[in-house]
Amino acid sequence: MHTPAHGADHHPKKRSRAHHAHDDVPERDAGVFNRAEPLAPFEAGTSVPPDIAHETTAAPQLGLVDADLIAERLRGRFASFLTGEGRDVIEARCRDALQEHTGWLVSQITREVALTLETEMTAWVREAVEEEIARRSGHA
Length: 140
Prior knowledge:
The protein has helices at 50-56, 67-83, 85-139.
């Protein structure tokens, strides 16, 4: 390990990895999983710790609500959304995607047509020049 030659070279917040303060302290226990004292027991018949149990008793009717009823309400909300505002959002996104794709297609087709015309135009100019040369040499 590198030890700085001068105190100013050593960063004050850096700790050396060679020595830790807790290395000199012998290990007193094997860890939290080997505790000698038992953990605080739950009250008889409860499935949550006592300090949380009093908070959950405020809404007992919530357990009585039928899951199918909740699912049906959600289905209704989804259907309402998808026939109203949701449909407008979907249509707008489709329009945007269609315009974007149409723009890309126009660019691709324009590029391909330009390349094809460039090749064809060279042939057309060559033919026109040859025709003009033939016409002038025949009338000369």
